[in-house]
Amino acid sequence: xxxxxxxxxxxxxxxxxxxxxxxxxxxxxxxxxxxxxxxxxxxxxxxxxxxxxxxxxxxxxxx
Length: 63
Fold this sequence. Notes:
Elements: E1 12-15, E2 19-22, E3 34-37, E4 42-44, E5 51-54, H1 56-61
Parallel strand pairs: 1-5
Antiparallel strand pairs: 2-3, 4-5
């Protein structure tokens, strides 16, 4: 029987600013710091796949 090859969904991060930075979480598993502009209310990191969504209400509720 083949191993489970499902890939986990990318992390979604709600933000309250239209310019965000991503380093993949830092440490040994991170990537170079890159900046994204959320002109269309969202952006996906080209390195790690994190999805940033501009939504100030949800950002305020996020841990």
